Amino acid sequence: LTIIMTVTSGYFSDSAFPEDFSVLLTVRARKGKAAFLLSIYNEQGIQQLGVELARSPIFLYEDQTGKPSPEEYPVFNGVNLIDGKWHRVAISVHKKTVTMILDCKKKFQKSLNRSKQPEIDTNGIIVFGTRILDEDVFEVSAFILIFQRLE
Predict the structure, then answer these.
(1) N or C: which end of the chain has fewer CB within 10 A?
(2) Euclidean distance between CA atoms 17 and 32, whole angstroms
(3) What are the beta bridge partners of residue 23?
């Protein structure tokens, strides 16, 4: 079991975290075992961004003003990413919308009630495979993760 943790500024050293971006994943989770694949924390240890692979995946996003509230985090009901199968997942954030494209076929959109000029602090850490203080870890054979700035 390996949990990877690194400083966020190592990935975004030349610029701020992009306001609009995509996260591209190729994953196969252990069947029936939900866990966070990715968590980005600010300097104070507050989780600002996260992807929970689950029977109904959650996209956690919290900008510098605390928006959206946890009750408003986008939940992709009916999308089972913990079925033991390989999946290609693209999660794209543009303005106040988050879009998930599953296996290059199915497209799901949710609103993202964030600030007009949202910021993600790059002075914290990125944790792959869990969240700080979580007991559960993401068990995977392999995964590929790419952040892409939307121009």
Answers:
(1) C
(2) 32
(3) 91, 147
Delineate the domains of the chain, giving CATH numbers in brackets. 23-117+140-150 (2.60.120.200)
* Tokens 């290609």, residue located: 88
The tens digit of pLDDT for each residue in 61-73 reads: 999 999 999 999 9
* Cα–Cα distance, 60 to 48 (Å, whole number): 7
Given a cut of 70, whether residue 140 has pLDDT beyond it is no
Region of residue 55 (phi > 0: left; psi between -120 and 50: alpha; otherwise: beta): alpha
> Which among 30-34, 47-51, 98-102, 132-136 has the top mean pLDDT?
98-102
Predicted TM-score (pTM) of this structure: 0.83
150: nearest Cα among 15, 18, 41, 13: 18
